[in-house]
Task: structure prediction
Amino acid sequence: MAADPKPTGWLARFTRKSRSFDIALAGRWAVYFVAIGVIAGLGAVAFHYLCGLGVHYFMDLFAGYRPPSPAGEHHLIEPSTRPFNRWLLLILPCLGGLVSGWLVYTFAPEAEGHGTDAAIKAYHNKGGFIRSRVPIIKTLASTITLTTGGSGGREGPIAQIGAGFGSFLATRLKLSDRERRIMMAAGIGAGVGSIFRAPLAGALFAAEVLYRDPEFESEVIIPAGISSVVAYCIFCLIFGWGSLFDSPPFKFQNPLELGPYLVLALVLVGVGVFYIKTFYGMIHFFERIKRIPNHLKPAIGGLCTGIIGFYWPHTLAFGYGYAQMAIFNQLAIPFLITLAIGKVLTTSFSIGSGGSGGVFGPSVVIGGATGGVVGKVFHNLMPGVVTEPGAFVVVGMAGFFTAVSNTPISTIIFVSEMTNSYHLLLPSLLVCSVAYLAARRWTIFACQVQNKIDSPAHAGDFFIDILQAIRVKDLMHHVRKVRLIPQDMPFSDFKTYFAESKQHYFPVMDQDGRMISIFSINDVRGVLFSPDIEHLVLMKDIGTSDIIVATVEDDLNTVLQKFTTRNIDSLPVVRADDHGLLIGMLNRREVIAFYNERVGELKRRKDE
Result:
């Protein structure tokens, strides 16, 4: 009999119940994930330094613009005393886009845009493979884009640094595509968790962002958790511990406040759809411009960004400092409105034109500003119910990114870790749930797939899952009764039966009616065309006693593996407690047809 199929993958290998826990294998994988965390953490440190230096030398010394920082970050270099010059700020993003575009389209065109989407695409369609040069180019291009005024987030390049190293390490170790995807995703979690000081959310984000449906890539969570903790610790050892944002001790204590929070959720969905459509509208606009070389398009996008920044400088670069001010209720409603709308436009121009940067960072600012507007309006209308407009800023951050990314769980944890506001989990859950349900058809991550069924990475898993759920006993109506050939039957007598039979496989029985061997029509050809010996041959001389059989309890995955073991088209189905008692023959074609019927049923249920 053929051996039962064994599960594959690193997790299955060192947690298989039929074996003792393999400490050496678990330790080796732990070393891999720690290494990914170290590289991602060091990459986050390097990128943070580069961004700090870039903001100082480009925006401060060149244009005299010094945007505020969040409470968890400080200027790496003492600010200059250069006066603010709007005209220099107008052209700075254009110059940055010119250099960034040349870097990307000369050395790694796949590094353009927001890096998280590229990593998602690599997970689903490329076996987790990322060219080793991509993280380097992405880091440099993003640094230039963001520190010259381009609007974007830091998570994209950091995610690609961690993902790129995970992919590189798996490739060098000659691991499978599945293992490379897991290591790549661990790198995403480590990069995002470290740069935003949210290790738990980083691990969950890496497992959740891959799909539009509320579905987690379960194999990714533990590896990403290990890598994210290591990267977070390295980053905080350099830049200090604590959350990215500081916030007052917000508390949810009035159920009536859920009404305004529900309104906030709907407003966030509207702004989120506007953001997604503007962002991808800009991408499609620049893609249609064929006469202009790709490496010049980010300069045009940078010029448009500079024009907006000329009037609304607070919409340039990162904007985290303004989100921090909004949390403490230090910004007026008109300022918050221009921050939200302007950030949508500058991000769309900066990244949609081919510039490099992430989309999570701008989403935090846009969502926070939108939440601040709604919070202030309701505070003016019902001050006894909405007492802290800043709480709406925090919840708005979570709800907005949920609306544009389809990642409700990780986003709630993200914002809670980033702001240290765990008492707002209840309103955040409401807002994120409503925002997710209302905005499911839209996403800022175009490479997300609906669920595991639609992921090329899981095509084989889905096939096996369905096969393992079906047993031979479910196909008993396809198991055909056949005649057993007596072992002492002369071949000359068999010829008469063979001429009238449509069987292709013939079980041979002993005097007790038990199957002892089997032969196919191919096995009789040598005798059939040798009439001189056919009267000497008995049927027990033709059959093979090395029989591959199936039982009624075998799943179809096992059955198909047995079919392919010797490239046979039919299997004897026997009793599980006695393999000598034949029930009938099962045909490979009918197994495949039954599988196709089951897949069709599942697809119809999904579409209903």
